[in-house]
């Protein structure tokens, strides 16, 4: 078994402050003996408007955010999975999830496929597609010290086809770094994560943003690790006053045991393979 750490923070429009929080989490994960640290979606910044978000993406601080984390990964011999913004075009951004290995190299880069466009009664109105370019492919799962990892981001969680496709390609762990709203978090966060774990018989690791990012937006928190049997094996609450981690051992023998003893033989003669 290998120890994984899932982090939680409250990102704002201050990239420098967010980087400090992430470095704090890196130190905590390394001190705990974790081999991988999972950080939330948009760990580099959360802006109060599309215009501010696009402006921040073009600052030197955004580039430094990633390079400093690469150095931290190398110094601590720690793999880091972190959600960031990248520039897609003159008018659009990418909601990306990168994997930094323990040598400080970026080895994987997933672009969020399903974008969050909602109008919640009594809650926020968010239209991610207004300034974010959707991804066009599922990134094949890849080997890591904790097992074979498949990458997904936040709203991807609501589409089981993606997680099933990752499992079919060999994923043993599926990630959902997120910035879930409070209303949707209270209603669906744990239920969806446990469902994805049960139906794919995989570990699910979801690092979450927590607390008020600005006057317009607040995230639910509750970073979590779920076993392939659907059990919550590590979880944080809603506290946003300081960055936190939770840890759990990733047991690949358990993944194999569950898949062997509870075989899920899909009837793809009756329905398309997800």
Account of the protein in words:
Helix content is 30%, strand content 28%. The chain has helices at 15-32, 50-57, 60-76, 160-168, 182-200, 252-261; strands spanning 2-9, 36-38, 79-87, 93-100, 106-111, 117-119, 125-127, 142-144, 147-151, 173-175, 203-206, 208-212, 218-220, 224-226, 232-235, 244-250. The longest helix has 19 residues, at 182-200. It starts with a strand and ends in a 13-residue tail after the last helix. The relative contact order is 0.17.
SSE class: alpha/beta
Note poorly predicted spans: none
- The counted number of beta strands is 16
Order of helices and strands: EHEHHEEEEEEEHEHEEEEEEH
Q: Radius of gyration in whole Å, from Cα? A: 17 Å
Q: What is the typical, i.e. mean, pLDDT?
A: 95
Percent of residues in helical segments? 25-40%
Distance between the termini: 30 Å
| Count of helix runs | 6
The largest sheet is:
8 strands, mixed
Oligomer: single chain
The amount of beta strand, in percent, is 25-35%
* Large-scale geometry: globular
Question: What does this entry show, briefly?
Answer:
It contains 6 helices and 16 strands. The protein is α/β, with parallel strands linked by helices and 274 residues long. Strands 1, 2, 3, 4, 5, 12, 13 and 16 form an 8-stranded mixed sheet that branches.
Tag the structure with descriptive keywords.
Nit1/2_C-N_Hydrolase; eight-stranded mixed sheet; CN hydrolase domain-containing protein; C-N_Hydrolase_sf; 6 helices; alpha/beta; 274 residues; hydrolase
């Amino acid at each position: 078994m290998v120890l994984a750490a899932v982090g939680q923070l409250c990102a704002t429009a201050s990239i420098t402050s967010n980087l400090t929080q992430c470095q704090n989490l890196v130190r905590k994960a390394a001190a705990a003996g974790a081999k991988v640290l999972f950080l939330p979606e948009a760990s580099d910044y959360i802006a109060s408007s599309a215009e501010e978000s696009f402006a921040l993406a073009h600052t030197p601080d955004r580039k430094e955010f990633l390079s400093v984390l690469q150095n931290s990964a190398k110094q601590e011999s720690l793999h880091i999975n972190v959600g960031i913004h990248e520039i897609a075009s003159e008018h659009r951004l990418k909601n990306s999830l990168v994997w930094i290995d323990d040598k400080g190299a970026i080895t994987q880069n997933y672009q969020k496929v399903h974008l969050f466009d909602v109008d919640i009664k009594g809650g926020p109105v968010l239209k991610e597609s207004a300034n974010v370019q959707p991804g066009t492919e599922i990134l094949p799962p890849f080997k890591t010290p904790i097992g074979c990892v498949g990458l997904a981001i936040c709203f991807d969680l609501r589409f089981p086809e993606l997680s099933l496709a990752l499992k079919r390609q060999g994923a043993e762990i599926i990630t959902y770094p997120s910035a879930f709203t409070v209303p949707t978090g209270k209603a669906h966060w744990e239920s969806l994560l446990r469902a994805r774990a049960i139906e794919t018989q995989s570990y699910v690791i979801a690092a979450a943003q927590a607390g008020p990012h600005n006057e317009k937006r607040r995230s639910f928190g509750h970073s979590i690790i779920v076993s392939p049997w659907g059990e919550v094996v590590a979880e944080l609450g809603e506290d946003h006053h300081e960055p936190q981690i939770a840890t759990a051992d990733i047991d690949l023998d358990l993944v194999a045991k569950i898949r062997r003893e509870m075989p899920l033989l899909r009837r793809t003669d009756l329905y398309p393979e997800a």
